[in-house]
Amino acid sequence: MLLHLSISQFTLVDQLELEFGPGTSTLTGETGAGKSITLDALGLALGGRGSAELVRAGANRADISATFDISGYPNASDWLKSQELDSGQEVILRRTIGADGRSRAYINGQPVTLLQQRTLGEQLIDIHSQHEHQSLLKKETHRRLLDEFAQALELAAETRSRYKTWQDQYRRYRNLADSVEEAEARRNLLQYQLRELEQLDLSEGEIEALESEQRQLANAGDILNGSYQLAALLSGGEGDIAEQLHRALQLLSAMPEQAPALVEVAQMLDSARIQIDEATATLSRHIDRFEMDPERLSEVEERLSAIYQAARRHRVQPSELPALQRQLQEELEDIGTEDTLERLAETCSKLEKEFRAVAAKLSELRRGAAITLAESVNRQLVDLAMPHAKVELALQALDKPCSHGLEEVEILISTNPGQPPRPLGKIASGGELSRVSLAVQVVTAQTSRTPTLVFDEVDVGIGGATGDVVGRLLRQLGETRNGCSGQVICVTHLAQVAARAHRQYLVEKHSDGEQAFVALRELKNGERREEIARMLGGQPSPQSLAHAEEMLTRPL
Fold first, then answer.
1. Which pLDDT tens digit goes with each residue over 480-491?
2. Could you tell me the CA-to-CA distances from 440 to 24, 30, 155 in Å, in that order?
3. Rounded CA separation 196/519 (Å)
4. Which residues does 407 contact at the CB level (< 8 Å), separation at least 6?
């Protein structure tokens, strides 16, 4: 649940520190006081969209942080561990927005992407706003609400995944079927090119070896002549290197006294003599084995010519021919043989059966949950002064399946006895739509796994005794849910709703003559009674104060 919210330099807020606890909390105040600013800031901390306009005039940046207790909510804990962001039973989400519009997001002090922050935020808070009245007119909203209520989100995700896999293969099948002649022509060309490269049979490193051999064979005469000259220089008669070293060693050995430096020189010259002897032997073997082979030179040049010609035809470097051969082979395998179309058809049929099997399970869950959800909503509508209204969730089979399953989900309503159920937008008035939306939200929220539920003026268009019912429902949601302490935060303009809350916060707008700013504080005892009286009828009077006291002390 939300423990602490810190807001700095955000729109009309200079600095605001708020402590929250379990139960239901309401935010009240005059119209235009900025009640929704707090929730807007919270939305940013959860990964919502931001802009430079949200930074308080004259400030460098807006800074919002929200601290949550996630003990008892393993999904959030497991996600944090998977992202290496775990820090115990509390988590801090922080968001900054600069005056230049640049935004940064943090989880437990570590920089993260907005997607990561949004993903975690969706597991911590479920926000219901008055704008959802309009989204309730959309069929995709009906399907989402039903799947959430049926706890079928994972099955719905699997259905989408299997549908995508099936359709991907089906598109491949259709593309291949629509271009059989073109594919056949391409297959023939690939087969011809591959036969040519296979006949060439070029191995890795062969080009470098052939080019080196070609250079050696082409310059055989110069190489052999140079080798003879080198042999003569090393050990070929009077004055050669070997004889010079021999004389030097004789001079050293004839000296009467061998100084340490001369001993070292003698050792080096003796080592040089051994190296010269070995070089002479190696050069001799080279000369003995060296052959001037014009026929081999012709073979090498023909092989290189074939390789170079193949490279020119394919417009690649000679060294790229092996990679090209692999690429052409892969393309040929992708096009497949003549029976590829038949095998693809069999694959598509198999994938369609797998999709329909999963989608059928989803349909079964939806049908059962649709009845339960409709019954629960109808019970809430009775308390919300719509006793004759009947809501049902219609599941209409689709002519063609889609990624969402085998049926279309739509909420239908009948507001009067004997009237057939029809779509919400065609039969419900604005006030009725508000109450239906609230009933749906209350029912679905009771099965929500998120710790905190936020309602932003969902009671628009509701008043009187119905408002008291709304307040009671919201208070019930703030009690323990799913074995954990519940938490509800609600922006409201109804005294009946505020009076039912566990705690109440007052939002006030002030001005110093140059700038306006918003302040928020928790109301205690008499302060709360005065605010309830104001909400009932403007300036508090003895009568409104007494009424407010009665509402606050009324049994739950």
1. 665 667 788 988
2. 19, 28, 22
3. 82
4. 363, 366, 395, 396, 397, 398
